[in-house]
Amino acid sequence: MASDVGAHSLLRSVWFYVYRSVRWCWIPSWLPSWCPTSQRQLQIAEDKMLRYVGSAFSKQHISISNGNLLWTLSFNSKAEKNKTPMVLLHGFGGGVGIWAQNLDALCQHHPVFALDMLGFGQSSRPIFPADAQEAEDQFVESIEEWRAQVGLESMVLLGHNLGGYLAVSYSIKYPGRVKHIILAEPWGFPTRLDTEEADRPIPVWIKALGAMFTPFNPLAGLRLVGPLGPYLVQILRPDFKKKFFSMFSDNTVPDYIYHLNVQSPSGETAFKNMTVCGWAKRPMLQRMDQLQAKIPLTIIYGSRSSIDSTQVFTIKEMRPHSHVEVITIRGAGHYVYADQPEDFNHQVLQACDKLE
């Protein structure tokens, strides 16, 4: 047992030393030429994703502190002026283009804003703190600074995956700015499960592999394969193309996903620092009691999702005097907004109408 621990510790030390040297010394110099991408190519890929959106919209960078910019789509809604603006927060590895099948429907009833969160898409990609709470706080503050710059008094926050986690975190800190939270397949709510059994010790070689790959960002492999990256996305994630088949018959979607995720891994690194083995280091369920009871909560899951929806019952128990509605969309997986976009759009608007 002692030798296992010693080997594990040594491998971690050696790998971290190599990783730090590689990361900060020679990777930045060859990465742009090695990966067939650029900021311009990302912009072109996003434009292709949005070319079938029929509603009028503007796009611009919104300035926040420290010279950072948040890329924003603003839709000129035909809805009544008293409708609360809806702000769309994408999930990990996403961007504004992933809402292509939702924007037209949603903006007919609400002013809609979609932004690339700090560290993702065409927004600035700063260095985030290594501490999980500090990284989360930087995300939250960027949203608040964006809100102030855009001039929104209050918002409906619709967040998918990581966006849902940050929507609740933001609402805990700035409750007066949030009229309604809609969580689509949220990440980061439950506490990590203890899956290690005492009578089934993990072999030292598995521990060693875990130590080797721990320092890497989740999507590092996509960048390391260089020119093979676009084909890798097409081969490993053909579902991305299928989700948008009604809009695109070519590789528009996998190309967009590729260019989103091979730029500087800023938000990706922040996400990694907020997780342990895929679980949130700061589970949101442990803080739901801090969310004001007056803020209504709508949670949307796909019936075919691998996300554990039983956490909803815990949320309901923690918010007995609050509006908590749970919606399941049949035939949808984790990317519920793209798997069944018409049903998703309808359910979102219906949930909002109940509370307006």
From TrEMBL:
It is found in: Cytoplasm; Lipid droplet. One of its GO terms (cellular component) is mitochondrion. This is 1-acylglycerol-3-phosphate O-acyltransferase ABHD5. Its EC number is 2.3.1.51. InterPro entries: AB_hydrolase_1, AB_hydrolase_fold. Belongs to the peptidase S33 family. ABHD4/ABHD5 subfamily. It catalyses: eicosanoyl-CoA + 1-(9Z-octadecenoyl)-sn-glycero-3-phosphate = 1-(9Z)-octadecenoyl-2-eicosanoyl-sn-glycero-3-phosphate + CoA; 1-(9Z-octadecenoyl)-sn-glycero-3-phosphate + octadecanoyl-CoA = 1-(9Z-octadecenoyl)-2-octadecanoyl-sn-glycero-3-phosphate + CoA; 1-(9Z-octadecenoyl)-sn-glycero-3-phosphate + (9Z)-octadecenoyl-CoA = 1,2-di-(9Z-octadecenoyl)-sn-glycero-3-phosphate + CoA; 1-octadecanoyl-sn-glycero-3-phosphate + (9Z)-octadecenoyl-CoA = 1-octadecanoyl-2-(9Z-octadecenoyl)-sn-glycero-3-phosphate + CoA. Coenzyme A-dependent lysophosphatidic acid acyltransferase that catalyzes the transfer of an acyl group on a lysophosphatidic acid. Functions preferentially with 1-oleoyl-lysophosphatidic acid followed by 1-palmitoyl-lysophosphatidic acid, 1-stearoyl-lysophosphatidic acid and 1-arachidonoyl-lysophosphatidic acid as lipid acceptor. Functions preferentially with arachidonoyl-CoA followed by oleoyl-CoA as acyl group donors. Functions in phosphatidic acid biosynthesis. May regulate the cellular storage of triacylglycerol through activation of the phospholipase PNPLA2. Pfam families: Abhydrolase_1. Residues 85-339 form the AB hydrolase-1 domain. One of its GO terms (molecular function) is 1-acylglycerol-3-phosphate O-acyltransferase activity. Its main location: cytoplasm. The gene is LOC114843010. GO terms for biological process: cell differentiation; fatty acid metabolic process; lipid homeostasis; negative regulation of triglyceride storage; phosphatidic acid biosynthetic process; positive regulation of triglyceride catabolic process. Keywords: Acyltransferase, Cytoplasm, Differentiation, Fatty acid metabolism, Lipid biosynthesis, Lipid droplet, Lipid metabolism, Phospholipid biosynthesis, Phospholipid metabolism, Transferase.
